[in-house]
User: Fold these one by one.
Assistant:
Number 1:
Amino acid sequence: MIRRPLRVTLVFIGVVQLVLGAAFALAPARFGAMLGLPETPTWVYWMFCMFSARALGFAYGMFLAARDPARHIHWIQAMIGVQAIDWLATMYFVLSGVVTLAQVSTASFLPIIFIGMLVVFYPRQQVATRVIHGQPLSPSK
């Protein structure tokens, strides 16, 4: 059944987002140094903290979607878009010579893996069944 691999993928992506969110919020200078990036002006850490909030929000969304992928399909769709932008930006800056492949680390391949897994295991049947039977795809309050 497709649901288990999708849920495992969503939880894994959520964990990656959680780790990135925590690293950028709690130790942005150390994280950058670990990747071999030059020291940045301290105002950049403000941007890192803002990114952290978004990463933590997406971690929450991935954990939520893992519980009921068809119900939280919009989180999956948003993550596919985010990963596509991440990968395109990473490749742009690598090809421009701003950063090296070694510095971008897993950002050079994880987005492609995440997109592939999310697309392959996308809950098409569950979503179609809910739409046909008139069940809401998101909770109504």
Number 2:
Amino acid sequence: MYIVFGNEIIDSEEIKAIIEDESPFRVDKDMSKGSKREDTLAYQVSISIDELNNILKEEYEIDEMDNEELFDEYMILTDEIGVELEELMPEGAILNARSYKWDNSEDVIRAVIVVAHEELGEMKLMDITKRLLTQAD
């Protein structure tokens, strides 16, 4: 899907490739159409628990953490990694990343990533993210 990005037109497939090639995320679904906007990119992504454990092992004794503590750390870390994707996006991009689920069947954390041009504004970006979270899984 093509979106209007400032004065450019961007293909959501190009951004999907950047996310998959340059980060530990796997894009599960392009939600750009679901945003019901012509100026917003949105993706449902996942990151493996093994990947998150490798990062957490540097700071925590994960074997001593209970599931609730692990869940909190997984969600926080997923959001942090997601926000770092903004550096890989086209100039003028703003990004919001929100994790929402620990999928035990696939052993991944699921999240939604929304990208738009800075002209849209952070508040509108957060509103779009909230709406898309209700559509995810």
